[in-house]
Amino acid sequence: MFKTRLLSGIVLVIVLVATVGLGGNVLFAVLGIISLIGVSELYKVVSVHNKVLGLAGYLAAAAYYALLFAGRMEYVTMLSILFLVLLMAVYVFTFPAFKAEQVMTVFFGLFYVAVMLSYVYQTRELPDGGTVVWLIFLSSWGCDTCAYCVGVLIGKHKMAPKLSPKKSVEGGIGGVVGAALLGVIFALAMNKWGGASASPLHYAVICGVGGMISQVGDLAASAVKRNHEIKDYGKLIPGHGGILDRFDSVIFTAPVIYYLATLLAGNI
Questions:
Q1: pTM attached to this predicted model
Q2: What are the residues whose beta carbons fall under 8 Å from the beta carbon of 143, sequence distance 6 or more?
């Protein structure tokens, strides 16, 4: 199991470096595919992935990415309203085929997976996106690793005992501090070898905040699984589970990094 998890993790990192490094249409296409898979995993939880309600969700996700590609994001609000109207139409005209929870999950899935994951691409497209985009993964996965190590060493107080008994307050704090330190190291490395002029302080703040938010994303995904009594969202990534299992923290971190980077534009 450990070997499988390690090997699939290495492959995942290679794919990540290649697609995020290239950016542009390659990253856009990969994120679009990943988003649709993630949406499908969420819809499977409420058993609508292969039904008309789920189809409406897939169409909305595809439409959102079409707007993003065309640079017409001013129409996202209109898309959201039309999507909700479509879902309610399916709900009432097929009643009682679907429950209200299923309808709300389909609507929620568009934003939780497709929209929030798209911020990886949107961050990559920023003026300094080639550097800043890595803070998404550095803060989320770095925080997770640091939190685990600190939790194993000195963790005593449970962070969410009923939801995730192994996570500790000490581990959570260690994860945030570790993410901030990784941000500083990354900034210094980029300045020295990448010809950048990154601010270690700003990178520390961005990664620290990203680390905090990533833990919310991790626990939120776990809460959904607990409520529906499933272990993993899927089996796409051997040893890791599905897209939502591996990218649960990235989903929450990506928009935060994007807006922090935008707020500090010209100073990072």
A1: 0.93
A2: 175, 176, 178, 179, 207, 210, 211, 214, 215, 249
